[in-house]
Amino acid sequence: MGFLLVTAARRAALALLLLWGSAGGAGAQDDSRALFERYAGWVVQIRILEAGSGSKRGLGSGFVSGPDGEVVTNYHVVSELLLHPERYRGELVDDAGASHPVRVIAFDVVNDLAVLSSPRAFDGHFALNGATLHKGDRVYSVGDPYDLGMSIVEGTYNGLLEHSRYEKIHFTGSLNPGMSGGPALRANGAVVGVNVATAGNQISFLVPVARVRELLAQVRAPDFEPMDDPTAELRRQLLEYQESYVADLLDRPFGTVRLGPYSAPTEPAPYFSCWGDTTHADDDLYESRVHECFTEDRVFVSEDHNFAIVRFRHRQLQSRGLSPSRFYELYTSYFEGNYSQLVGSEDDLTPFRCRTRFVTNGTLPLKATFCVRRYRALDGLYDAVFKAAALGRENAGLETALVMASVSFENAERLARRYLEALQWGE
After folding, report:
1. Whose CA is closest to 129, among 188, 73, 70?
2. What angle do CA 49, 51, 54 make, to 5 degrees?
3. Is 284 left (phi over 0), alpha (psi -120 to 50) or beta?
4. In what order do the strands lie in the sheet with 99-101?
5. ∠285-289-290 over CA atoms, to 5°?
6. Whose CA is closest to 7, among 88, 82, 64?
7. CB 230 within 8 Å of CB 82
8. Which stretches within 84-124 are classed as H helix?
9. DSSP state of 104
10. What confidence tens digit (pLDDT) does each residue in 61-87 have?
11. Closest to 370 (Cα-Cα) out of 310, 407, 412
12. What is the pTM of this model?
């Protein structure tokens, strides 16, 4: 799932772009034209500029959401302003082509939303009352794809994503980079969501307007004050989110899957998707069964980091003719391989520190390794990888890895312990 922010690399790679989605007849074309003519002036381009040169670093969209001129966009559009204010500045470009400075006054990192203030006065704003939607209803998305000018895309509402802990609308329409933060509208101009991401092939995603209303309610509260320290606010939100996320996982019993002579955890919550397959070596000397569970609930914080990721993978190996020494060598190579796929620079994260122990779960002996690294600027948040390998058999083995990103150390230990307890003999 790709976010809809335009960067220099994306702009340079553009060869051909269809600005208009396929129309559903003359009536749909009339609706598109009327919407565009009436509301395009309340949609703006958001530019992130390198502070020294004024060069464009990234582009997105936004829309006017209240009588005081608040502009809503995605968090990922303006994340550089929050993470590196010394290096970047932001501005909006209105329908007349005039530029105005913007300031981020609030954000919701989990739902990928931000509210901006600007000295630009607008003559109106969008209604955020929402609307009752049914699968197949026509929705119109507005934004500025690839810095080519404000455009409108027609598509359909296809309900909420099933494998997600928080709500996201499945929108069948051709959203493109640069449209991030723009509004998705019904024919009457009511906002139903905010453009956020695409998977290509007209599979796109919107943040429901209800999440926008919640963030704006905070901004409009009598005691609201714009944040002084974005990093502290980011840390607070991420800690709060991972606490509820992990608590939800710990409150549920793990499902189990049979892998050869072993039983292992699967589908820890309904918003996880689990897949598996069996492969054979060319010479049929061993068999490998893989079972993997993951969720699309990735919280964008920066281009280098997606937070609150929990995923795991099991690999069960069964010898069909390998000697014990060759099987042990194969088994060890799989266990020592790097499954974490976690990225990050030394500027942001400490190196991983690991401890390895031999443990027994019931009658199943295991070699277990627990590794953690700490976020330097986000105190209290860690990445963790737990790996285990079943011991005791010369011709069979189960190696497994659990990856946790941006969780507290205590929650990483709790999840790893629960995961370990779910590894058993299946006989």
Report:
1. 188
2. 55
3. left
4. 99-101, 88-93, 43-50, 56-64, 71-73, 113-117, 103-108
5. 140
6. 88
7. yes
8. none
9. E
10. 999 998 889 999 999 999 999 999 999
11. 412
12. 0.89
- Measured on CA atoms in the order 348, 351, 353, 354, is the torsion positive or negative? positive
Q: Are 414 and 421 in contact (CB under 8 A)?
A: no
Query: In the structure encoding, which two tokens stand for residue 111, read together?
Result: 């739902």
How many whole angstroms separate alpha carbon 9 and alpha carbon 34? Answer: 34
What CA–CA distances, in Å, run from 166 to 16, 116, 396? Answer: 34, 23, 39
Alpha helix ranges (H) inside 182-229: 209-219
In this structure, what are the phi and psi dihedrals at residue 387, rounded to the nearest 5 degrees?
-125, 145
CA distance 45 to 58: 11
Neighbours of 126 (CB within 10 A): 21
Q: Distance between CA 156 and CA 164 in Å, rounded?
A: 20
Residue 81 φ/ψ, nearest 5 degrees: -65, -30
Task: Please measure the distance between the N-terminal and C-terminal CA atoms of the chain and give it in whole angstroms.
Answer: 40
Phi, psi of 188 (to 5 degrees): -90, 5
Half-sphere exposure of 53 (CA within 13 A, CB side): 4
* Dist. CA 121–CA 100, nearest whole Å: 10
Say how far apart CA 38 and CA 32 lie, in whole Å: 10
Report the C-alpha gap between 358 and 356 in whole angstroms.
7
Q: How far apart are CA 338 and CA 340, in angstroms?
A: 6
Q: At residue 206, what are phi and psi to the nearest 5 degrees?
A: -130, 145
What burial class does residue 38 get, using C-beta atoms within 10 Å of its C-beta: 0-12 exposed, 13-18 middle, 19+ buried? exposed
Tokens representing 175 are 């959203």
pLDDT over threshold 90, residue 369: yes
Q: Can you name the residues that pair with 170 across neighbouring β-strands?
A: 205
Q: Using one digit for the tens of pLDDT, what is the confidence trace for 14-39? A: 433 333 333 344 455 568 888 988 99
Q: Record the tokens describing residue 108, joined without a space.
A: 């919701």
Give the separation between CA 71 and CA 42, rounded to whole angstroms.
Answer: 9
